[in-house]
Amino acid sequence: MAYSYRIFVPDGNTTALVMGIEPDAAERRRIQDEIMRRYGDVEQVGFISGDSGCPRLEMAGGEFCGNAVRAAAWHYLGGRPGEILIRSSGTGRALRAGVLEDLRVWTQMPVYESAEKVRVIEDGLYWAEMEGISHLVVSPRRAVPEPARMLESAKNLLLRYDLYGGAACGVIFTERVSGALKIHPCVFVIPAGTAYYETACGSGSVAVALAAAALRGSSKKLPLLQPSGKIIEATVEYADKKILEARICGRVR
Q1: How far apart are CA 163 and CA 179, in angstroms?
Q2: What is the chain's alpha carbon radius of gyration, rounded to the nearest angstrom?
């Protein structure tokens, strides 16, 4: 069958969005693999509904991806300022998303209200659960693995603490670079069979902000340097030991 798609770059994390929802998981993976074979820089593939009145995003592996939601918001709004609701795989809720006047693109993230969903595994390791994807955040106090061993080290950490599973999981290594906090996201989408050191990661950025907010007991806004060299801003609203809301915001082309 023929299919059409567009390729977006949400601060890195190159994403292909296929026009139309493919209901069969095996066919979604086949289409994903074909697109990735053609375009080596594509890190993930999603499928979007054609109905702009009820926008829907289904990732190839059924996971949640914040950057794909931002790409879908840019698509549905035609790159113009506005706000919409998008339903996404990995979460049962509709998420608000939109384009700001300065053309940055934002989305809500599917975080749990309970601060207990963010917990200390051991000193310098924090597990942040979200709907559709969860991440192990590694403090900048710990060394970042060599690039050639990044994915291997990440998977070993997840396996060591019995955290490898679900639709998607990852490890977010962090380090200080010239005064900025940089993330190194390693993401595993198990049903899709993919493992990437991603050039940008929205859910990983929020995971870092969630860990910071829960540890300090207050709201947090973090501009996080991505491997692409771009910035994704992660915001977590926190009060009375509850996570009220989380968002990411950045550029899409």
Answers
A1: 31
A2: 17
**What would the mean pLDDT of 53-82 be, rounded to a whole number?**
95
pLDDT confidence bin for 29, thresholds 50/70/90: very high
- Cβ proximity of 99 and 82 under 8 Å: yes
Please answer whether residues 101 and 116 qualify as being in contact, where contact means their C-beta atoms are separated by less than 8 angstroms: no
Domains with residue ranges and CATH for the chain: 5-106 (3.10.310.10), 115-250 (3.10.310.10)
**Is residue 179's pLDDT more than 70?**
yes
3-state secondary structure of 178: coil
Model pTM above 0.90: yes
Extract the tokens encoding 162. 């019995």
Q: 131-157 pLDDT, tens per residue?
A: 999 999 999 999 999 999 999 999 999
CA distance 54 to 87: 8
Q: Are 10 and 105 in contact (CB under 8 A)?
A: yes
* Contact assessment for residue 176 and residue 208, using Cβ atoms and an 8 Å cutoff: no
Q: Convert 70-79 to b/e letters by CB count within 10 Å (16 or more is b).
A: bbbbbbbbee
Among 32-36, 47-51, 103-107, the range scoring the smallest mean pLDDT is 47-51
| CA atoms of 193 and 190, how far apart (whole Å) | 5
State how far Cα 251 lies from the chain centre: 14
Q: In the structure, what pLDDT confidence band is assigned to residue 54 with cuts at 50, 70 and 90?
A: confident
Residue 11, CB-side half-sphere exposure with 13 Å CA sphere: 27
CB-based contact 19:5 (threshold 8 Å): yes
* Cα–Cα distance measured from residue 12 to residue 231, given in angstroms and rounded to the nearest whole number: 10
